[in-house]
């Protein structure tokens, strides 16, 4: 389903809007309303964050959302139940740290697929770090999406691209998740370096919060991922987060000339 | 122990049996590759060894003494020997590793140093070597630990380090480590992260062990000279486990030497408030490596508890996990209350006030009367001195902390 979505976008000359939301944030009921609203606003892919107690790759906004979700008792099982209830028409990618996946047991990928999840992305399992567990994720029913960082040498980019499924998630800048005033000036070069060795669609995330940033990235990449900005807006209200997604969609579509 | 087993145990592939590994965000992979190359080059370079050795001798004060303990020995019923890491500059074993990693950072051209600290001993050691080498130093410390260890915070700032309070989660070592990793993900091209224990992603557990192994190398030679034989048992406290790995490593192939790691049982092993990752944890991934971990059924990390800030950590070094499963080391635990008794006991009997961390190992040995024959020496790693803990212990109600 991920692949189909990106093929359709490519055929239409459009860029993907990938929206991140932490499962169970601001609370379980509004979580579902938020996801449905994001789909309606034009999100092409929903990344569902699995709450974790020690999110070392996340900045303050997503940390706080993770804590709020845990306070509501939402863990990986809860996240899957919410996905099943939301009945979304767009592909869903789980965004998790490795430990909750390991704790959930080997059949968790099948259970996730049954709940309506299409892909999985693991923050702390880089390519080559653990062949056995990477094979578990890669050979299962979900598309195993891999990450590339601005520090990744091009040779390694090629290796990551070979192992990836669905799309490649390019981290735009050093650091943890969170909004940035400015995108790194060398981002187009980084995208080009990756593009040269990668046949998969490239989606760029970390630091993206505004429509004009989405538009700028859309000129080079196949899609943008917006996380902290949506989570922050959802702290205020679901409507605010949905409005932001709509504005990002418009910004991104402005790039599709 | 056969050669094959030694290779597995050595962690050259980043693994200790099933444990260890490199579970980090992609951004850090190139930094860890660079660190690994720099480490191999340094370990093979006589100039690095000469510089490190010279500073360990003249700045740190090595070799640290091996001290007999006649009155404590009489109490235990076996001769106890104390490896005095508390006599190092800054008062703990931590400086062995901090100094070596700071020299490595210089070789990599990285002049900004990040560290996490629990009790403050690693933070102080890192701030110290950074002052000596002219490096910028940023130390992350949980707010709760800053309260427990005010003096160490003052020491670090006095030496020019920036101490950043961490207010997330339990506001202790776990969260300080998470925050230090976040800094490093942001600054890795120009900063080196000096992890203070045998934890974290490869190559940290092996590297920190290598830099702490001097404890056991010295102690083994000193035991042969002073006691005329190897110890029957080597005992050390285990939080992350760096002083324990440091003293265990030289004895790993001496099958007759029992290796004992003492974890913090906090309010009791069945109280839910302890730091005994090896005794009560299950395998899981935290801070970049797979090891025993205090966690719930959904993989959320369970807050640790110990009266000792340095042991207050829900994970443990992956090599300890390996040694436990391989049966090569034995792990036991001591409560807060027992540790406080150990703290007082060594002071009263030997005139040595140990760190609260070390006091756990003291307390375990003190309770083993009859375990060893009168001619079976026991080697205790006095990982640090207790000056930092006196204020906390002297507070009313410290016994129930």
**C-alpha termini separation of chain A:** 26 Å
- The proportion of residues forming helix of chain B, as a percent range, comes to 40-55%
Annotation field: number of helices of chain B: 17
Spatial strand arrangement across the major sheet of chain A: 1-2-3-4-5-6-7-8
- Provide the β-strand percentage band of chain B: 15-25%
Largest inter-chain contact set: A-B, 40 and 35 residues
Topology:
The complex is a heterodimer of chains A (257) and B (401).
Chain A: H1 2-11, E1 16-22, H2 28-41, E2 45-49, H3 60-71, H4 76-86, E3 92-96, H5 98-104, H6 108-115, E4 119-122, H7 131-138, E5 143-148, H8 154-163, E6 168-171, H9 187-195, E7 202-205, H10 211-218, E8 223-226, H11 228-236, H12 238-253
Helix pairs in contact in A: 2-4, 2-12, 4-6, 10-12, 11-12
Chain B: H1 3-10, E1 15-16, E2 19-20, H2 29-43, H3 46-60, E3 66-68, H4 70-76, E4 80-84, H5 94-107, E5 112-117, H6 121-133, E6 136-142, H7 143-148, H8 150-158, E7 162-166, H9 173-187, E8 191-194, H10 204-212, H11 214-226, E9 233-237, H12 242-248, E10 258-266, H13 277-280, E11 282-286, E12 289-293, H14 318-326, E13 329-335, H15 336-350, H16 356-366, E14 378-382, H17 387-394
Helix pairs in contact in B: 3-5, 5-6, 5-10, 6-8, 10-12, 11-12, 15-16
